[in-house]
């Protein structure tokens, strides 16, 4: 089995009153919105991580989204060289060897991913595949597995309302056994009473630390580490600690990077300021405006305080107290709000470069504070507070475009703490209740969630639900998510869901088939997995562009393929097909097979020829290899196009070329393709 098989506003935020103008919500393919989201996200994600997410100015690289379906990457296997087996490993291995299926249940960051891969590598040396986390046990019981191979589902999304029984999992086991393979599933929920499920525990903390940092511990280090390691509950923290120490950091500096230390700092701050209305509103504002300038932050803070006073009115002071408070207020009337937040140990500013020069950006003093601040707010604050937050986010997203990305960043972080609070807001925005501004913010949130290993499966579930059960506005926002970061993370799900949108195009207006071209372009640029789109469409061409297929289905299939052939990189404005073939020339045959299919579909033949002509115009820019590559494409076309179509194609291609009087002269490339097609020998011009 191949990897194919996979189930009007002001920039300063000043409120001038009244309801701002709202863009009409999008419910169809909108190239303007596509380009806006892509350019804004790519620019802001770099800004957000280079110099903004750390107060020392060093910053971090923007996280690279890793593909989580398809072939297991060689680097993941190589990383197992330092894998530390937990105490439960041998029992799990025995169970997997016996039943050929195993479900690891337990909290995040306990090493389940590495354990799953290591378990599979113990029972098979064949290829390992990752399946989508959005998979039901019924789908696992019907999947066509390849003999001898290993399959893994990371962080499977379990619907709370789903009824899964022992019988269901035994059916899945029977299918795995029947196909002679092995399946390991990891789940974040501790459900172990069902067949094949087992509680998974993290490996011993000291063993993990020593595996990644083999230096001998001094007596002082041993005393400190023995105490600290008892508080560490994430494997990634242990690996990070080891890397800090191996890199030359002092023990104290390295320990300060531990999540448990960061959590303690935030918790202590909240213990000290629980009743400080101003401080709480200030830190809440920052949680949803990271990266904005001081003026924008303060404007957002004022708005939030007004809403907070509405939902949680401060207690009326007694007469004597009131006079004292009025006096204090008068004394501090000119004391700057900016000076107040500068005294906050959790808050910092960094200088970042923009097109207009440099500016200060509001950030957390440590990026790790962000999620823990939201966790403390969720633990300590009630419904009225969160109602105020929701209304405030609605307001700032609608009024000022600059808030969209930072608000999305706060919601993505909150998703790790209280996803139930996040989903209604995203659903509200995706429905179009805050116009295209809210829709863009919803897309950004899913993009950011897709960059987090623990949140990505939830983002996948949200986008899938929007496409399968949502309104047209939902479907469009879900589609936008899949042609971006979510599609990079889950390319198999992306092509499946986008195909569903295209086949049900009556529910979404516009040239919806073009979304496949957008996905292909994204994968060419980001992941190297663009061939997954090509292989998927080759199968659809074989199935639907044939005599007897429904005319509408044939036309939609052809238009999807043409969208891919005609797709262009948003930055270079060059053909993404050529960019892909430059890296993967062996896929010329796939492109030729797709071209042959759409060229034989007469209603879209001219569109296909124009798309081919545009590819050749871009190819002509590389004079040294253009002729050779055009000839190779012609030979591949010859193999897939019936002989009786060769003459007609030559005539039609020359006709289309004759109509294009402007642009690059590609006559020699057309000759090269047609000579190879007709078997007239090579043409090196």
Mean pLDDT: 86
* Outline type: globular
Largest pleated sheet: 6 strands, mixed
Strand order of the largest sheet: 1-3-4-5-2-6
* Proportion of strand residues: 5-15%
The low-confidence parts are 7-22, 49-61, 330-335
Which secondary-structure class do the elements indicate?
A: mainly alpha
Task: Please estimate the helix content.
Answer: 55-70%
Distinct helical segment count: 33
Rounded to the nearest angstrom, the distance between the terminal CA atoms is 41 Å
Short summary of the structure?
This protein is mostly helical and 685 residues long. Among the domains are: 115 residues, 3-Layer(aba) Sandwich (Rossmann fold); 53 residues, no CATH class; 175 residues.
What is the topological layout?
Elements: H1 31-49, E1 70-71, H2 74-78, H3 89-99, E2 101-105, H4 112-123, E3 128-131, H5 137-142, E4 150-153, H6 166-178, E5 182-187, E6 197-199, H7 205-212, H8 219-229, H9 235-246, H10 251-255, H11 259-273, H12 277-287, H13 294-311, H14 319-331, H15 337-342, E7 347-354, E8 357-364, H16 369-380, H17 383-399, H18 403-415, H19 419-430, H20 435-450, H21 456-469, H22 472-482, H23 485-489, H24 491-503, H25 514-526, H26 531-544, H27 551-565, H28 576-583, H29 588-599, H30 605-619, H31 623-640, H32 643-659, H33 667-678
Parallel strand pairs: 2-5, 2-6, 3-4, 4-5
Antiparallel strand pairs: 1-3, 7-8
Helix pairs in contact: 3-4, 7-9, 11-16, 12-13, 12-16, 13-17, 18-19, 18-20, 19-20, 20-21, 20-22, 21-22, 21-24, 24-25, 25-27, 25-28, 26-27, 26-29, 27-29, 27-30, 29-31, 30-32, 31-33, 32-33
Biased composition (Basic and acidic residues): 7-25
Region (Disordered): 1-28
């Amino acid at each position: 089995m191949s990897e194919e098989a996979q189930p009007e506003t002001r920039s300063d935020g000043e409120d001038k009153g009244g309801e701002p103008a709202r863009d009409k919500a999008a419910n169809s393919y909108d190239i303007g919105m596509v380009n806006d989201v892509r350019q804004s996200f790519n620019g802001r994600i770099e800004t957000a991580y280079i110099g903004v997410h750390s107060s020392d100015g060093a910053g971090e690289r923007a996280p690279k989204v890793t593909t989580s379906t398809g072939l297991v990457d060689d680097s993941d296997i190589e990383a197992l060289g330092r894998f530390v087996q937990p105490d439960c490993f041998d029992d799990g291995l025995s169970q997997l060897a016996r039943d050929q299926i195993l479900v690891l249940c337990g909290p995040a960051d306990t090493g389940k991913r590495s354990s799953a891969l290591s378990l599979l590598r113990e029972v098979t040396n064949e290829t390992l595949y990752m399946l989508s986390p959005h998979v039901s046990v019924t789908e696992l019981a019907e999947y066509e597995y390849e003999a001898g191979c290993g399959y893994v589902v990371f962080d499977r999304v379990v619907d709370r309302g789903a009824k899964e029984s022992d019988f269901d999992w035994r059916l899945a086991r029977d299918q795995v056994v029947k196909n002679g393979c092995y399946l390991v599933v990891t789940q974040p929920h501790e459900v172990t009473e069902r067949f094949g499920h087992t509680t998974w525990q993290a490996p011993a903390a000291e063993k993990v630390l020593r595996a990644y940092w083999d230096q001998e511990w001094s007596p002082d280090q041993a005393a400190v580490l023995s105490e600290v390691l008892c508080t560490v509950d994430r494997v990634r923290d242990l690996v990070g600690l080891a890397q800090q120490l191996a890199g030359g950091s002092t023990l104290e500096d390295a320990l300060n990077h531990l999540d448990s230390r960061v959590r303690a700092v935030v918790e202590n701050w909240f213990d000290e300021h629980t009743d400080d209305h101003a401080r709480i509103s200030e830190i809440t504002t920052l949680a949803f405006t990271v990266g904005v300038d001081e003026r924008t932050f303060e404007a957002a803070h004022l708005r939030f305080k007004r809403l907070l006073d509405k939902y949680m009115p401060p207690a009326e002071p007694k007469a004597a107290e009131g006079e004292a408070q009025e006096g204090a207020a008068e004394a501090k009337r000119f004391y700057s709000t900016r000076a107040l937040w500068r005294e906050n140990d959790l808050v910092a500013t960094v200088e970042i470069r923009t097109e207009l020069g440099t500016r200060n950006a509001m950030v957390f003093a440590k990026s790790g504070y962000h999620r823990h601040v939201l966790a403390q707010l969720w633990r300590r604050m009630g419904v009225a507070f969160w109602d105020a937050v929701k209304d405030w986010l609605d307001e700032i997203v609608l009024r000022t475009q600059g808030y969209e990305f930072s608000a999305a960043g706060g919601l993505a972080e909150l998703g790790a703490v209280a996803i139930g609070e996040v989903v209604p807001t995203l659903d509200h925005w995706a429905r179009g209740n805050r116009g295209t501004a809210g829709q863009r913010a919803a897309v950004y949130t899913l993009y950011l969630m897709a960059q987090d290993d623990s949140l990505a499966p939830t983002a996948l579930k949200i986008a899938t639900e929007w496409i399968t059960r949502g309104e047209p506005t939902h479907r469009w926002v879900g589609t936008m998510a899949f042609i971006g970061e979510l599609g990079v993370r889950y390319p198999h799900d992306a092509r499946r869901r986008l195909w569903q949108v295209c086949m049900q195009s009556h529910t979404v207006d516009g040239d919806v088939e073009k979304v496949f071209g957008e996905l292909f372009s994204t994968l060419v640029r980001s992941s190297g997995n663009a061939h997954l789109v090509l292989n998927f469409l080759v199968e659809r061409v074989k199935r639907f562009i044939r005599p007897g297929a429904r005319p509408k289905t044939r036309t939609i299939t052809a238009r999807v393929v043409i969208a891919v052939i005609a797709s262009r990189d948003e930055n270079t404005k060059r053909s993404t097909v050529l960019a892909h073939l430059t890296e993967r020339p062996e896929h010329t045959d796939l492109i030729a097979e797709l071209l042959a299919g759409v060229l034989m579909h007469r209603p879209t033949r001219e569109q296909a020829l124009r798309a081919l002509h545009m590819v050749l115009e871009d190819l002509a820019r590389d004079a040294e290899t253009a002729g050779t590559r055009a000839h190779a494409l012609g030979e591949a076309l010859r193999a897939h196009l019936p002989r009786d179509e060769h003459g007609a194609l030559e005539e039609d291609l020359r006709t289309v070329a004759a109509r294009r009087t402007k642009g690059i002269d590609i006559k020699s490339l057309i000759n090269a393709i047609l000579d190879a097609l007709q078997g007239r020998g090579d043409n090196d011009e």
